[in-house]
């Protein structure tokens, strides 16, 4: 098959069927072998090697896979009435449900939806299965999240006996057959455009953006398609009369940098399809955190402190498992009117101890318990480093060593008898909110 295809590389009329992978010559609309309309043709199809894979409505897809009765039902994966939508299947999306939408609004838009509490342990397990299949294609896999990643398939033709485009199509078929979920793929010459391509024609999409067409394609897109242009910056560009990427393409780099600083340089390069970032397989985490959304708004320290303690223990457990520590403790709060407050404090040394994370977070929280009602609380650490630098003996706070030893004993008991074998007085008997659900991890 590869020999037959290599003779027609970059022939616009030559491609393959995404369902049976048979070569396609000429301009027919259906596969000559299996009759499928899912054909892929592109002038640069066999010259491109940078891919972006994105699982389709990942959490909801896993739930539908595990419960066939949900196949034709609108499914929302999220955290109860006061939580937000983590993922919605495409049926729910047609009805107006979107990720990060408050749950009450999602149920107003789609009252017949089936709401499922997230099962992060299961999603992580499935995500690792997909990741393993990616790494069988190439060692150059850069994860972006549990359900998406960049792949660099350059130089893999000899390994697989096929060009990257065919390898990618075979991969999407294998995921659907072996794991039972679908993915969408984008193929291009750079990461920026590969990610854009993967968003087209979801679910089960396969889109290609070549180098020759990049500038013309981008000219027709809104500025919000550029990575880093969110709502706030888009509003700034709007005030300056800039709505389309074609307008950026007519501006000089110097002018853009005078107006927008380093972001101006990014606008200049990406608007022209210039992205020299490489696929980096060793992409280290920048922070470890946990958060939870409450069933009802909470305002008092009596309600918030037990939750802070439980979240601190979750963050500590993840740090210890990963063999890392963090130097900056970050507190996150979301008010009843959806405004986010973040507070942080840098420690003298990195830590991975729940007690130290909690005590620092408590000091930050005390200043925020002013009667304001909150719907979400989170705690985390950043400035990550290896665990061997964490929590050196404190000559001033002699009790810190005793607390660290006590925490080690608690960890050992929990490892042997389960997470609920030992609780501190902060969380014991404080109800469901003091034990945040598994979907709180980040």
Automatic annotation (TrEMBL):
<dbReference type="InterPro" id="IPR053848">
    <property type="entry name" value="IMS_HHH_1"/>
</dbReference>
<dbReference type="Pfam" id="PF00817">
    <property type="entry name" value="IMS"/>
</dbReference>
<keyword id="KW-0235">DNA replication</keyword>
<keyword id="KW-0548">Nucleotidyltransferase</keyword>
<dbReference type="GO" id="GO:0009432">
    <property type="term" value="P:SOS response"/>
</dbReference>
<dbReference type="GO" id="GO:0006281">
    <property type="term" value="P:DNA repair"/>
</dbReference>
<dbReference type="GO" id="GO:0006261">
    <property type="term" value="P:DNA-templated DNA replication"/>
</dbReference>
<dbReference type="Pfam" id="PF11799">
    <property type="entry name" value="IMS_C"/>
</dbReference>
<keyword id="KW-0808">Transferase</keyword>
<dbReference type="GO" id="GO:0000287">
    <property type="term" value="F:magnesium ion binding"/>
</dbReference>
<keyword id="KW-0239">DNA-directed DNA polymerase</keyword>
<dbReference type="InterPro" id="IPR050116">
    <property type="entry name" value="DNA_polymerase-Y"/>
</dbReference>
<dbReference type="InterPro" id="IPR022880">
    <property type="entry name" value="DNApol_IV"/>
</dbReference>
<dbReference type="GO" id="GO:0042276">
    <property type="term" value="P:error-prone translesion synthesis"/>
</dbReference>
<feature type="domain" description="UmuC">
    <location>
        <begin position="50"/>
        <end position="230"/>
    </location>
</feature>
<protein>
    <recommendedName>
        <fullName>DNA polymerase IV</fullName>
        <ecNumber>2.7.7.7</ecNumber>
    </recommendedName>
</protein>
<feature type="site" description="Substrate discrimination">
    <location>
        <position position="59"/>
    </location>
</feature>
<dbReference type="InterPro" id="IPR001126">
    <property type="entry name" value="UmuC"/>
</dbReference>
<keyword id="KW-0238">DNA-binding</keyword>
<comment type="function">
    <text>Poorly processive, error-prone DNA polymerase involved in untargeted mutagenesis. Copies undamaged DNA at stalled replication forks, which arise in vivo from mismatched or misaligned primer ends. These misaligned primers can be extended by PolIV. Exhibits no 3'-5' exonuclease (proofreading) activity. May be involved in translesional synthesis, in conjunction with the beta clamp from PolIII.</text>
</comment>
<feature type="binding site">
    <location>
        <position position="54"/>
    </location>
    <ligand>
        <name>Mg(2+)</name>
    </ligand>
</feature>
<dbReference type="GO" id="GO:0003887">
    <property type="term" value="F:DNA-directed DNA polymerase activity"/>
</dbReference>
<keyword id="KW-0227">DNA damage</keyword>
<keyword id="KW-0479">Metal-binding</keyword>
<keyword id="KW-0234">DNA repair</keyword>
<keyword id="KW-0963">Cytoplasm</keyword>
<feature type="active site">
    <location>
        <position position="148"/>
    </location>
</feature>
<feature type="binding site">
    <location>
        <position position="147"/>
    </location>
    <ligand>
        <name>Mg(2+)</name>
    </ligand>
</feature>
<dbReference type="InterPro" id="IPR036775">
    <property type="entry name" value="DNA_pol_Y-fam_lit_finger_sf"/>
</dbReference>
<keyword id="KW-0515">Mutator protein</keyword>
<dbReference type="Pfam" id="PF21999">
    <property type="entry name" value="IMS_HHH_1"/>
</dbReference>
<dbReference type="InterPro" id="IPR043502">
    <property type="entry name" value="DNA/RNA_pol_sf"/>
</dbReference>
<comment type="subunit">
    <text>Monomer.</text>
</comment>
<comment type="similarity">
    <text>Belongs to the DNA polymerase type-Y family.</text>
</comment>
<dbReference type="InterPro" id="IPR017961">
    <property type="entry name" value="DNA_pol_Y-fam_little_finger"/>
</dbReference>
<keyword id="KW-0460">Magnesium</keyword>
<dbReference type="InterPro" id="IPR043128">
    <property type="entry name" value="Rev_trsase/Diguanyl_cyclase"/>
</dbReference>
<dbReference type="GO" id="GO:0003684">
    <property type="term" value="F:damaged DNA binding"/>
</dbReference>
<dbReference type="GO" id="GO:0005829">
    <property type="term" value="C:cytosol"/>
</dbReference>
């Amino acid at each position: 098959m590869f020999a037959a295809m290599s003779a027609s590389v970059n022939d616009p009329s030559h491609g393959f069927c995404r369902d049976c992978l048979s070569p396609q010559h000429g301009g027919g609309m259906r596969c000559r072998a299996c009759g499928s309309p899912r054909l892929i043709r592109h002038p640069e199809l066999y010259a491109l090697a940078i891919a972006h894979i994105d699982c389709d409505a990942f959490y909801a897809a896993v739930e539908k896979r595990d419960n066939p009765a949900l196949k034709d039902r609108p499914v929302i994966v999220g955290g109860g009435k006061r939580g937000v939508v983590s993922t919605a299947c495409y049926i729910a999306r047609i009805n107006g449900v979107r990720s990060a939408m408050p749950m009450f609004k999602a149920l107003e838009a789609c009252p017949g939806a089936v709401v499922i509490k997230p099962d992060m342990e299961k999603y992580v397990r499935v995500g690792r299965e997909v990741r393993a299949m990616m790494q069988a294609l190439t060692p150059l896999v850069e994860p972006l999240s549990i359900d998406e990643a960049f792949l660099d398939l350059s130089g893999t033709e000899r390994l697989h006996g096929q060009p990257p485009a065919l390898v990618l199509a075979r991969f999407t078929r294998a995921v659907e057959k072996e794991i039972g979920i679908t993915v969408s793929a984008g193929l291009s010459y750079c990461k920026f455009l590969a990610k854009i391509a993967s968003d087209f024609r979801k679910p089960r999409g396969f889109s290609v953006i070549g180098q020759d067409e990049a500038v013309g394609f981008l000219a027709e897109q809104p500025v919000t398609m550029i990575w880093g242009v969110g709502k706030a910056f888009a509003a700034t560009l709007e005030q300056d009369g800039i709505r389309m990427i074609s307008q950026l393409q007519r501006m000089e780099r110097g002018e853009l940098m005078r107006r927008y600083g380093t972001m101006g340089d990014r606008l200049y390069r990406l608007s022209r399809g210039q992205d020299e970032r490489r696929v980096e397989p060793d992409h280290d985490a920048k922070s470890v955190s946990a958060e939870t959304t409450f069933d009802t708004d909470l305002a008092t320290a009596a309600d918030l402190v037990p939750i802070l303690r439980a979240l601190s223990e979750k963050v500590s457990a993840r740090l210890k498992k990963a063999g890392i520590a963090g130097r900056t403790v970050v507190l996150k709060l979301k008010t009843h009117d959806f405004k986010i407050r973040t507070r942080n404090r840098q420690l003298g040394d990195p830590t991975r101890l729940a007690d130290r994370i909690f005590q620092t977070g408590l000091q930050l929280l005390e200043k925020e318990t002013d009667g304001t009602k909150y719907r979400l609380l989170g705690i985390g650490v950043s400035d990550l480093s290896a665990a061997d630098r964490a929590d050196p003996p404190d000559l001033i706070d002699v009790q810190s060593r005793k607390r660290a030893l006590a925490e080690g004993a608690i960890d050992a008991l929990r490892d042997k008898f389960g997470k609920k074998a030992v609780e501190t007085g902060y969380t014991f008997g404080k109800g469901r909110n003091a034990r945040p659900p598994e979907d709180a991890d980040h």
